[in-house]
Amino acid sequence: MTGQSIETLINTFTPKSGNADALLKVQLDEIAKLRGKATKTGWLGNEVYRAADGSRLVIVTWFQSKEAKEEWAASAEFAAHLARIAP
């Protein structure tokens, strides 16, 4: 990948009180569901963390390039995912 750098996204989610476990389950299910399509656009993977106090989730995602991240962000699959996790 000469001339390219890995693009890293860090997203923090603050669910309504008591909903962290539900959001965690949804996110993990979505990752599994979208993995195939996302990989084809240059998604390299991600890690999901929950704050010790259960108040937030942090998801770190890596893409092969800025262009790969933008392609995934513009996809219908990602738009549908955003709609599913909307407040």
UniProtKB/TrEMBL annotation:
Its EC number is 1.14.-.-. Residues 7-87 form the ABM domain. The keyword Oxidoreductase applies. InterPro entries: ABM_dom, Dimeric_a/b-barrel. Keywords: Monooxygenase, Oxidoreductase. One of its GO terms (molecular function) is monooxygenase activity. It holds the Pfam family ABM. This is Antibiotic biosynthesis monooxygenase family protein. It comes from Sulfitobacter porphyrae.
